[in-house]
Design a protein that fits this description.
alpha+beta, 3 helices, binds FE2/S2 (inorganic) cluster
């Protein structure tokens, strides 16, 4: 599967992901900068991304834990998600994510 990732400089990258990967893991493993300080256990918000309008409604809703953490981010938008909570599946092939400034710690 493919994820389109726009980094904090505005550069777009196509990266690979496997089914069951957290999007955060695929981004990290591709070599792009993503702090992801808690390693994906939904406790840091440094994997915060913005999902494109075309994709935001296709993801499952935020969990309570994700909602609570997103209160802490620098710039919350309606399409804000924690990329460690996006579990890749075939339906998400081609998803478009933009790294937030929170990933740049
Ligand atoms: S990596 Fe820490 S909340 Fe996602």
């Amino acid at each position: 599967m493919r994820i389109s990732v726009t980094d904090t400089n505005g550069t777009q990258h196509d990266i690979e992901a496997k089914e069951g990967d957290k999007a955060m893991e695929a981004i990290r493993d591709s070599g792009l900068t993503i702090a992801a300080l808690c390693g994906g256990c939904c406790s840091c918000a440094t994997c915060h991304v913005y999902v494109s309008d075309d994709w935001a409604d296709k993801l499952p809703p935020r969990s309570e834990d994700e909602e609570a953490l997103l209160e802490l981010v620098a710039e919350l938008r309606p399409a804000s998600r924690l990329s460690c909570q996006i579990i890749m599946e075939p339906a998400f092939d081609g998803i478009e994510l933009e790294l937030s400034s929170d990933t740049n710690l």
